[in-house]
Design a protein that fits this description.
With 185 residues, the protein is α+β, with helices and mostly antiparallel strands. It has a single domain, classed as Aminopeptidase (3-Layer(aba) Sandwich). Helix content is 23%, strand content 28%. The protein has helices at 21-31, 39-47, 98-111, 129-137; strands at 11-15, 52-58, 63-73, 81-89, 119-125, 141-143, 156-162, 176-177. Strands 1, 2, 3, 4, 5, 6, 7 and 8 form an eight-stranded mixed beta sheet that branches. Helix 1 (21-31) crosses helix 2 (39-47). It is globular. It starts with 10 loop residues before the first strand and ends in an 8-residue tail after the last strand. The chain binds coenzyme A. Residues 31-32, 86-89, 94-100, 124, 128, 130-131, 133-134, 137 line the site of coenzyme A.
Amino acid sequence: MNSASSAAFPYVCRPAIGGDAPALTALAELGFARWGGYGETIFTWSQLSGVHTWIAETVAGKLVGFVVFGRVQQRPETPPVIDILAVATAAAHQRKGVARALLSVALDEIARWRIAHSVAWLTVAADNQTGQKFFSAAGFVRRLVETPPYPNGAESHRMARPVAPAATLHAPPPAVQIWADPRLG
Ligand SMILES: CC(C)(COP(=O)(O)OP(=O)(O)OC[C@H]1O[C@@H](n2cnc3c(N)ncnc32)[C@H](O)[C@@H]1OP(=O)(O)O)[C@@H](O)C(=O)NCCC(=O)NCCS
């Protein structure tokens, strides 16, 4: 399911494929450079079974944004939560609605998962004003939750918003067990 580009939105959103890996990793590294660089980490997340990755590209096929999302279980004793693991837009293409379109794709898919009282969560650095404004504009609110700092030591916030179920539901993807996967440690 690809989105159509238009004069107002000259991009296409589609699920990531293997060939997107170098561009996706490079954008992840650049987009999150302030917080310690996340290129390899975000690429690793995107490869996990049950994790969904969508990209936005120009009509010429240049990758300009991505969103990575899934169900994540932090610890064996806590239930999985739906998590927007990362979203980023290349600097030259920001403020054109790319991340909004990608987040909308993610929330539409999450809405189809057969999960009662569905809530989408995300982590954003406390000093990431742009990220917080973006998610606030999309209806996320900050919740008081202890979260581990970023690799560079920056504090992080958890934000969340409810997701109303779609008319047609299907089984949710398997939860990624962060505590059990050494690649995520
Ligand atoms: C946050 C980020 C993903 C936004 O991407 P984007 O494609 O530029 O965002 P959009 O154009 O879809 O913006 C949608 C809305 O978010 C808000 N927003 C986005 N960037 C903003 C900014 N710099 N200042 C204020 N509000 C902003 C606005 O409400 C905007 O709507 P508007 O342009 O109609 O006013 C991008 O700045 C980025 O890649 N940052 C680095 C990575 C990051 O911080 N990711 C988020 C944490 S996971």
